[in-house]
Design a protein that fits this description.
The protein is an alpha+beta fold. Helix content is about 20%, strand content about 30%.
């Protein structure tokens, strides 16, 4: 793919890899496509979803522009995830695939999180990332790797995983997910920032922390 900008080359690679994962988790479509639509006036009911009449589908139903633009990483964790799923491209409905761009500030991280509905395959475009995931109980084994531009790493569906920028310069990665909407649960936000809050006594016992530490963490989220 000589002459193609590295960012778009990366997007192509991620999408190609994710295609191999797509059919395992989202239902297989029974038609060429099913463009999601909120108003059923011009829709047909297929595979349990309202879809735009295929005759009314247009190129923009399968299009998104903007992944060449860096995300704003000025936040507590120093990262930004730009998501391209069925909410941005309605033509992804029933196709079992989506894409994200992840920007990292120097020493920023995409904190520990899970995707309940999809496996993730990530390719680094810029910078050096320390990445990893933790296997399920009872082993809870940490599997990690340091990635450089062009390196690819897979995070299995449902497992807690993370990425951390080891460098003093920004980093960029792209990732494909095996779902049109893989979902995300950020562990710290879910545990300490739930609404309403989890009873501190539960978290004190679970994490073996002082109750004051737990309430302080809850106040941060």
């Amino acid at each position: 793919m000589k002459g193609i900008h590295p960012i778009f080359h990366a997007c192509f690679l991620v999408s190609a890899f994710a295609c191999f994962l797509a059919s395992a988790f989202d239902p297989s479509p029974l038609q060429d496509y099913c463009v999601a639509i909120d108003d059923p006036k011009n829709a047909v009911f297929v595979n349990g979803k309202f879809c735009k009449d295929p005759k009314l589908a247009v190129a923009d139903d399968f299009f998104y522009s903007g992944l060449n633009k860096p995300g704003n990483t000025y936040n507590r964790v120093g990262s930004n995830v730009t998501t391209v799923n069925v909410d941005q491209i309605p033509g992804l409905n029933t196709l079992g695939i989506s894409l994200v761009r992840i920007d990292y500030a120097p020493y920023g991280e995409n904190p520990p999180h899970t995707h309940p509905r999809g496996t993730e395959i990530l390719v680094v475009v810029q910078g050096t990332l320390y990445v990893g995931f933790v296997t399920s109980n009872p082993e809870n084994r940490l599997i990690t790797k340091i990635l450089y531009p062009g390196d690819v790493f897979v995070f299995p569906i449902g497992l807690i995983h993370f990425q951390y920028n080891l460098g003093n310069t920004p980093a960029v990665a792209f990732a494909g997910l095996s779902s049109q909407n893989a979902g995300v649960i950020t562990i710290a936000n879910a545990v300490f920032g739930s609404n309403p809050p989890i009873n501190p006594d539960v978290l004190t016992k679970a994490f073996q922390l002082d109750r004051n530490v737990v309430t302080h963490l809850q106040s941060l989220f």
